[in-house]
Hints:
CATH class of the largest domain: Alpha Beta
Amino acid sequence: MLVPLAAFCAAALVSWYQVTGQAEARLARTAEMLQEHALRAFEAQNAALIAVAALMRDRDWDGIRASHSLRSVLAALDRAAPATAGVALIAPNGELALASRVEVPAPPIDLSEREYVVAHHGGGSAALLAGSGTFVGEISPGAVTGRPVFRLSRPHLNLDGLPDGGVVSTAFFPAYFSDFWQSVVESADDMVWLVRHDGAVLARQPEHPDPVGVRLVPGDLLEAVRDGRAARSRVHRLEPEPGLGERLVAIYQLRGFPVSVAYALDPGILRRDWLRRLPAPALGAAAAAALLLLLTGRAQAAAARARIEADRRGALEAQLRRSETGAAVGQLAAGVAHDFGNVAQAVASGARLIECHSGEPDRVRQAAALMAGAAERAARLSARMLGFARRGGGGPAGALIKPYDPGAALAEVAELLAQTLGAGTRVRFEHRPPRPPQVIADRAELESAIINLCVNARDAMPAGGNILITATGDAVAAGEAHAAGLDPGAYARIDVRDTGTGMDEETLARVGEPFFTTKPQGQGTGLGLSMARGFAVRAGGALRIESEVGQGTTVSIWLPAAQQDGGSAR
Length: 570
């Protein structure tokens, strides 16, 4: 009994480690997607603030208060971004000067004590100003609507480029984030926070009934956010809030802002997944235990019967037992002989086939090659399964990027997308000769760019279709004029082709511009392709788009090959 029990315990332990490892990988991918969603919203709002501040530099505050045209610009910015909960201008005396959701002239509402105003005067939470000069305020009631919002704000600059005490701000409804999180989390008991690094909670899933002034309770999660642990390791085991118990928590910081996204996985998901895997080893252990019990029981019963028969009948019964034993041995020998006959017949049949085709060496070699190929494929499959079970997360942020095979990263992305883009969208990855060289471009950014391109491709195929991701090697010779403007050198070329509706020349000329999108209002930010192009350029490569109406679109990315010393081979 101990052997089946020990085997079951070992199988259960291995299964638990596999479930935990897979959950950590899923958690990290989902948290990274939540970070990307929040970062895009923050960057879009910050860009709008910068644009409004630039538009106001040559105006005095009396002119701002009376400007219907400027108010129309604010209203247009408010409508253009689904995340926006209003854009406002606050005068140096702290009064509301102009707002996207208030008619001109704005009522004289005093906002001088609001955190996002005080911070730009050097008080309150001024230490939390981002390096770009943008401040992320905590949740407070909206001055006009009264609904809970949190604001991004920047100082208003005069003609000399210096702050004049005024503030430009834009607001988020926390529900913009929590509604999106509800559609992404694996379980209703999962928890997500958008939290400032001083502990101020900006959004939460599940939503807090009164989010104004809510902060993280001192504990593991607040310490992880404050000490920058997210920059060193993305997935942690900690208790996010008192009473919740230890959970797997992924923390991702929004680049350029003192804000992080934290996603805590419901431990029940791990238990349920683990329990779903236990029946197989449990059934095996139970069958082994039952067999052992049966054999033991039969042996004990036979021994007892033998002893009884020996006592009662003496030599005659002993002789009978010997004869019965001989009969049993005979039956066993007959069964063994029958099985051996089957094997011998199979060997003989194989020998006759070889004898019949002995004069056809090509056929014999072909059969041998097929057998060797089957064995080789089985070995590769086994190695692949072992590699997946043993694989870990990436290195800590900020570590030196080592050269890697872009094809491997693309294959993993293609496998993920094939399961998540919908049943009507078929995603496939291929290596094309020559094989692409290793690169040192940031792998996470590469995967994010490919995911963005494939999501765009899916949206261009409303009736479904095919997406083909290919990787190949490319080279630009000295003096050669490349269509994408590449410098001479070796490159890895990545193509994402779809069978969608394609684009006409006018749309193709504008695609890639920041905030330009062909999707209906509220369904796209227009930043996905622009960010993919920015990634390619930062890596020393390029991005090029080819499209034809009715024939689909191909987006090509070139990344410079890595040298042996870690630099780019250009």
